[in-house]
């Protein structure tokens, strides 16, 4: 019998037994060749025994013994406050080495906690792939936000992993300063005897990045 030590056979009953730890993720199919002898005990040496071979295949069924592995952007995903809300803020992926034909390797995502704001939501694109969006404009919402995201397989029972992702909404310098004084089209009178360096006028303006 060729089984890499994973199977044994009871020579009397012919029962095929599991002899060692099995791992479908390492080897999914075994081909066993079982040799059967009749009259082995008394007839083998005298040539009175006959043998026959039988080839059988053993397929290992999947158990949900692996947890998804999530891939999230490193560091803070940076977007400007003028990010188009139809564009994703980031992409999240997860893989699971269990059998992809079963729920054991099909993955769903969920935002389980948000820190800072509740305007972010998750859209599942495919098994193991999701995108994060904001449901409103980020205008004037500059700052740092965090989401805790869980990736869970559909095995029974399921396995899950959680990762924190950070979103940094950057202030965009969208406000030009406004002159308060002088007003537009002012005429400034300067004496002709003004010397180099004479102060003529002091201008005032408001505005700046964060108004
Ligand atoms: Ca396994
Ligand atoms: Ca498995
Ligand atoms: Ca799994």
Automatic annotation (TrEMBL):
Residues 7-70, 64-179 form the Cadherin domain. The keyword Transmembrane applies. GO terms for biological process: cell adhesion. It is found in: Membrane. GO terms for molecular function: calcium ion binding. SMART domains: CA. InterPro entries: Cadherin-like_dom (IPR002126), Cadherin-like_sf (IPR015919), Cadherin_CS (IPR020894). It holds the Pfam family Cadherin. It comes from Culex pipiens pipiens. Keywords: Calcium, Membrane, Repeat, Transmembrane, Transmembrane helix. This is Cadherin domain-containing protein. One of its GO terms (cellular component) is membrane.
């Amino acid at each position: 019998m060729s089984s890499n030590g994973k199977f044994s056979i009871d020579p009397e009953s012919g029962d095929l037994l599991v002899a060692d730890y099995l791992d479908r993720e390492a080897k999914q199919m075994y081909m066993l060749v079982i040799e059967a002898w009749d009259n082995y005990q008394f007839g083998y040496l005298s040539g009175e025994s006959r043998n026959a071979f039988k080839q059988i295949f053993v397929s290992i069924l999947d158990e949900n013994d692996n947890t998804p592995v999530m891939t999230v952007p490193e560091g803070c995903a940076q977007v400007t406050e003028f990010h188009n809300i139809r564009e994703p803020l980031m992409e999240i992926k997860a893989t699971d080495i269990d059998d992809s034909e079963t729920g054991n390797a099909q993955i769903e995502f969920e935002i389980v906690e948000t820190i800072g704001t509740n305007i972010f939501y998750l859209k599942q694109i495919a098994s193991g792939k999701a995108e994060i969006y904001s449901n409103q404009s980020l205008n004037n919402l500059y700052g740092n936000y965090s989401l805790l995201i869980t990736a869970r397989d559909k095995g029974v029972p399921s396995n899950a992993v959680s990762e924190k992702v950070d979103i940094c909404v950057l202030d965009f310098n969208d406000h030009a300063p406004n002159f308060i004084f002088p007003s537009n089209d002012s005429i400034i009178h300067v004496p002709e005897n003004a010397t180099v360096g004479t102060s003529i006028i002091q201008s005032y303006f408001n505005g700046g990045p964060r108004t």
